[in-house]
Amino acid sequence: MFKVSPELARKFPPLIKPDGSIASMPPHCTILFTKLNEFERKLARDVIRKVVAKVSPFQVRLGGKGTFPNLVWVPVKGPGPSRLHEKLLDALREAGIKAEQTHEEYKPHCSLAYTDDPKGWKGEVPSGSFWVREVELWFSDNKKKAAHRYKLGTRLRRR
């Protein structure tokens, strides 16, 4: 995932989860969501590091409104997220990690609100552009902090 720039993040309302609690993660765009066992997690860290090292920083633009059942979101526009999604998915699979997708199609977005009536939601929708220079790896069992941070375009040093 990558975080929304601090300037734009301030424009996001608190994300209230269906259980009434406030999401602890900052406004962000998920690049890849998959379930991994402990062995796959360790392997994935290295695979992600290698892929991200070859990807240059990219610019994205937030704007418009999209909906899923029970969710309002802001589309993340620009080719960078989808390209990185495909590269990560391919590399994980080549490494023997199943990396099964939870959704049929990847739609880069930032969640705005959980609601029973997403089409009727009337809140403000943040818009603007920013550069993505870093991605983070998070595990669903620890939403307090990132497991790892990776700078885009960071060349690997030979050991």
Q: Report the CATH superfamily.
A: Cyclic phosphodiesterase
The CATH architecture category equals: Alpha-Beta Complex
The main sheet comes to:
5 strands, antiparallel
H/E element string?
EHEHEEEHEEEE
Q: What's the structural domain tally? A: 1
Number of discrete helical segments: 3
Description:
It is a single chain. 22% of the residues lie in helices and 24% in strands. It has 159 residues and is of the alpha+beta class. The protein has one domain (2-151): Cyclic Phosphodiesterase, Chain: A (Alpha-Beta Complex), CATH 3.90.1140. The strands form three sheets. Strands 3, 4, 5, 6 and 7 form a five-stranded antiparallel sheet that branches. A two-stranded antiparallel sheet has the order 1-2. A hairpin with a 2-residue loop joins strand 4 (66-68) and strand 5 (71-77). The longest helix has 16 residues, at 38-53.
Question: What's the quick description here?
Answer:
The chain has 3 helices and 9 strands, in the order βαβαβββαββββ. By secondary structure, the protein is an alpha+beta fold. Strand 4 (66-68) and strand 5 form a beta hairpin.
